[in-house]
Amino acid sequence: MNNNKSRQFLKYTGALRVLLFVFPILFLVSCGVYTFKDVSIDYTKIKTIKIGYFENKARYNNPLLSPRLTDQFTQKVASYTKLTRTTNDDAHYQVQGYISTYNVSTSGVAQQKAATNRLTVGAHIIFKDIVNDKTNEFDVSRDFDFSANLSLQEAEGRLLDEVVKNLSDEIFNRIFSNW
C-alpha cells in the first residue's frame, strides 16, 4: 500500500513539474511577450554601421517621431550589437529610411458613431551590406488603436513611446535577426 502511494506521488510531482515548465512557455508565446535578440552578424567581417536620420515624408508630420525613432533605433543597435557607429560612407552596414505612413482611420463603431480610431505608422527602410554587396529594401507598419474620444494630439502623446519602440524593434529584427 505504501509503495502505491509513493508511485502516485511521483506521478503527481512529475506531472506537476511538466506543467510548471510548459505553462509559462505557452503563456509567454501566446501573449506575445517574447523577443528576438539573437543577432546574426559576422563580426570578423562587419564592424561598422552608418545610421541615417529617418526623415518624415508622410502626409501628416508628427515633429517628434523622426528624431525619436532615429534615436531609439540607434540605441537598440548600440545595446544589442558590437557594431561601431560611424558617419563615413564606407561603413560595412548602412541603414537609411523614412517615415512613409501616418494615417488615422476609424476602427470601431458603437451606436452609429466612432468608438475607436486607429493610427497606422509605417516606414520604408533601405539596408545596405557593403561587405557582401547586398541591398534590402522593406516596409514596416504598425497599427495603434485609441479611443475616439481623444483628439489626435492627445492620442499621439499617449502612443508615441509605443509607436517608437514597436517600429524600432521591427526594423531591428528585420535587419539583424533575419526574419
UniProtKB/TrEMBL annotation:
A family per Pfam: LptE
Keywords: Membrane, Transmembrane, Transmembrane helix
UniProt-listed PROSITE patterns: PROKAR_LIPOPROTEIN
GO biological process, alphabetically ordered: Gram-negative-bacterium-type cell outer membrane assembly
InterPro entries linked to this entry: LPS_assembly_LptE
Annotated transmembrane regions: 12-36
Coiled-coil regions listed: none
A GO cellular-component term linked to this record: outer membrane
Entry annotated with the keyword Cytoplasm: no
Protein name as annotated: Lipopolysaccharide-assembly
Species in which this protein is naturally found: Filimonas effusa
